[in-house]
Design a protein that fits this description.
The complex is a heterodimer. Chain A is mainly alpha-helical. Chain A contains eleven helices and two strands. The longest helix of chain A has about 30 residues. Chain B folds into three domains: about 30 residues; about 220 residues, Response regulator (Rossmann fold, 3-Layer(aba) Sandwich); about 150 residues, 3-Layer(aba) Sandwich (Rossmann fold). Chain B has a six-stranded parallel β-sheet with strand order 4-1-5-6-7-15, sandwiched between helices. Chain B has a four-stranded parallel β-sheet with strand order 9-8-10-11, with helices on both faces. In chain B, a hairpin with a 2-residue loop joins β13 and β14. In chain B, α3 runs parallel beside α14, α4 packs parallel to α5 and α14 packs across α15. Classes of the chains: A mainly alpha, B alpha/beta. Chains A and B meet through α1, α5, α10 and α11 of A and α10, α11 and α12 of B.
């Protein structure tokens, strides 16, 4: 019994990491109705950007998140304004192909610059420390930090969407870009902000993923897959839904692995398919 | 298939006709050719993963090629005169289909005389297949011989006609791993950490893999099952290993899976005494990424600067090769360097001994007669263990805190190759 409880606890903590992958994707999908196929590769890019100050100035990886998130915010805004806004239109295929192409350029570009070495951030003792809670169950300190940060960021972004004028603009554009335009909300700027926030969030996810294990220029697609599944399970356009979706995905994977080692990731996929089949709008869907 | 035959037949006929014509022409000028230096360069093809996930295997290429081209600059003297040597390199992008494609280009467009290839079955097998198909002599390495031989559908009775391989096999892995484990005091309970991929399934196969062999040697094997590569959570296995009291861990995972697992094992308080893995941390960059929790991990060691061998081509010793590599690239040596160099040693030796290096069959006959001491050990195809296969020595290594680099890989087991000195006895992993 305790073993199953252990699997659930580890799964919830894993869900925290997936939530960090997924919230950014949830925002861009919610506001622009566009899936960013390069999401995972931009996450890897953020990790490589953080690598530089960490290697050069021995900055603590957690501190490196701040400048990298700021940089990614600016990069996201201009990427949307200069390139991706041109692809948004009646044809949903254009932005998909554009981000797909960007992903390939990014992957091979990183390969050229950084080679294919496995990279990782080291946080020393903190990375392997844990708190025993009895019954042979131990809760890792680092996974707990990730989970806490995921909750904090979900709260912050929710507040941003409900309490600030830019949040109102984002939601209005999400509901009906044309009408929002008539009210003086410029969709192009709002889209830029949406991708900017998304990119700042994946900077956090990218660094944490790099602390948890290693990354190479090829690591992007699996992060995109888990982010996408979390968004679909939770329901498009709902931030807390996405968070819950990530936790459900994490628990499905660990409990699946508990049933039989080989079906861990498969169990996550099955839950994802079941949600698509029985409740295609997601478990917690509402408009952003 | 009818169409295939239709297109193929005339081609083969034409090639045969050309070969015949070439052979006759050659026969008539042979005395002349031997008298003066032959002008036509001998072309060696190399297909290597310069980019993509297998790129660490090809990392040493540039450095090695520089040295080899220097050694080849005056050509090679053969019984048929002195020939200039040309090396043509193509990137397989770590993709088996692309490897076959560029091998085809080297053979059909560039007209290479001899192929050398290595860097895992994904890279070497498709290239060797192309060579076998097109009748081009091929020397391959850095792939355990079973996946090379059986993975290509080899028949032990017939072997292959054009492709020859030197490296070690699964049986050597077993010997090296257990010789490390026997030196550490444990309860002999071995946990398998295997992914659901080609290597994982081959190692863990209940009939043909490690489990029956380990059981025979007195170890208790615990196999929790195959996990999906790039899994994010390993708590289920960790709990199972803890419950079974596993003290030795063995497997062949990819680096991100191992590092993720190893950090979680530490968090969950799973402390095996010995961890011996293939593939996971064979390259120093992975150890650097892991940091201090990597100290005490052990692995098989294909080539090491600690071995007493030297190059038959340039005369440099193993430590000199490693030092040269580190000085030129500012990167720590890895096990692949010696093997990349050795491919060109064998190729040069074959060309030197070939009666007529412009003739592929003559090169092939020279490969069969190889008896050469290289920087990775003795290469000689007359002894087996299988047709077309020759074995080079394998030892066991353990990662310890280093002096020049953060971590050093030292030799801790040499039962298979006593000529390579042991640096120390293996230690239990410190916690």
């Amino acid at each position: 019994m305790l073993e199953w409880l252990d699997a659930v606890i580890q799964g919830v903590l894993l869900g925290g990491l997936y939530a960090l992958f997924a919230i950014g994707l949830s925002i861009t999908y919610g506001v622009m109705r566009v899936v960013n196929i390069g999401h995972g590769d931009f996450l890897v890019l953020a990790a490589y950007l953080a690598l530089w100050p960490v290697m050069q100035f021995h900055l603590h990886p957690f501190l490196a998140i701040v400048p990298v998130a700021a940089l990614m915010f600016v990069f996201g805004y201009f990427l949307q304004r200069v390139l991706l806004n041109r692809t948004i239109g009646p044809n949903p295929l254009a932005p998909l192909l554009a981000t797909f192409g960007l992903a390939i350029i990014l992957r091979n570009g990183l390969q050229q610059i950084f080679h294919s070495d496995s990279r990782s951030f080291q946080i020393g003792q903190l990375g392997t420390d844990s708190i025993p809670v009895g019954g042979g169950i131990a809760i890792g300190v680092f996974p707990s930090i990730v989970f806490a940060v995921a909750i904090a960021l979900t709260v912050l972004v929710s507040l941003l969407f409900t309490k600030t004028s830019i949040g109102v603009a984002l939601r209005a554009t999400s509901d009906d870009a044309e009408t929002a335009g008539l009210m003086g909300i410029r969709a192009r700027h709002t889209y830029g902000i949406a991708l900017a926030i998304s990119f700042a969030l994946i900077a956090v996810g990218g660094v944490f993923a790099g602390v948890r294990t290693t990354f190479t220029p090829e690591s992007g697609p699996s992060a995109l897959l888990f982010a996408f599944e979390a968004v679909v399970i939770g329901g498009m356009g709902s931030l807390w839904g996405t968070f819950m979706g990530a936790v459900i995905l994490g628990v499905a994977q660990t409990v699946g692995a508990k049933i039989a080692i080989g079906i861990g990731i498969l169990a996550g996929h099955l839950v994802f398919l079941a949600v698509l089949f029985f409740k295609p709008t997601g478990l917690f869907a509402r408009t952003l | 298939m009818a169409e295939f035959e239709f297109f193929n037949r005339p081609k083969i006929d034409r090639r045969r006709a050309l070969q015949l014509a070439g052979a006759t022409a050659l026969a008539s000028v042979a005395p002349l050719g031997a008298a003066r230096a032959a002008a036509r360069p001998i072309k060696i093809g190399l297909v290597t993963p310069t980019t993509g996930p297998l790129a660490p295997m090809g990392e040493a290429d540039e450095f090695i090629l520089k040295g080899v081209r220097e050694a080849f600059k005056n050509g090679l003297a053969t019984p048929a005169g002195t020939f200039p040597i040309e090396i043509l390199v193509k990137d397989s992008q770590s993709n088996p289909n692309r490897a076959a494609e560029v091998a085809g280009e080297l053979i059909l467009q560039d007209g290479i005389d001899l192929m050398v290839v290595g860097a895992t079955p994904e890279n070497s097998n498709p290239v060797c297949d192309q060579c076998e198909l097109n009748g081009v002599p091929c020397i391959s390495t850095t792939t355990p011989w079973q996946p090379w031989f059986f993975g290509r559908g080899g028949d032990p009775a017939k072997g292959f006609q054009w492709t020859y391989h030197y490296f070690w096999g699964i049986e050597d892995i077993l010997e090296v791993f257990t010789s490390i484990w026997k030196q550490v005091d444990t309860n002999k309970k071995v946990g398998l950490f295997l992914a659901n991929d080609g290597d994982g399934n081959a190692w863990g196969d209940p009939k043909l893999g490690l489990p029956p062999l380990l059981t025979k040697m007195g170890f208790t094997v615990f196999d929790p099952g195959r996990f999906q590569p790039l899994s994010q959570d390993f708590s289920a296995q960790i709990a199972a290993y803890k419950k079974e009291g596993v003290e030795i861990l063995c497997g062949v995972p990819i680096p991100p899976d191992f590092i993720n697992f190893w950090k979680q094992a530490r968090q969950q308080g799973f402390h095996p005494k010995v961890v011996t893995m293939g593939k996971a941390y064979s390259f120093p960059s992975v150890m650097d990424a892991m940091g201090d929790i990597g100290v005490g991990l052990s692995q098989e060691l294909w080539w090491t600067p600690a071995n007493p061998f030297k190059s038959s081509l340039t005369g440099i010793t193993s430590p000199q090769l490693a030092d040269g590599y580190e000085a030129a690239t500012k990167r720590q040596w890895n096990g692949a360097i010696g093997f990349v160099h050795s491919m060109f040693e064998v190729a040069a030796d074959v060309i030197k001994r070939a009666k007529n290096p412009t003739d592929k069959a003559s090169l092939r006959d020279a490969i069969i007669a190889t008896n050469l001491n290289t920087i990775v050990g003795h290469v000689d195809w007359s002894k087996g263990p299988m047709k077309n296969v020759c074995k080079t020595p394998l030892v066991g290594g353990q990662w310890v805190k280093g002096k020049k680099w953060p971590f050093d890989l030292i030799v801790v087991a040499n039962t298979e190759a006593p000529e390579i000195p042991m640096a120390a006895k293996p230690i239990a992993i410190p916690y």
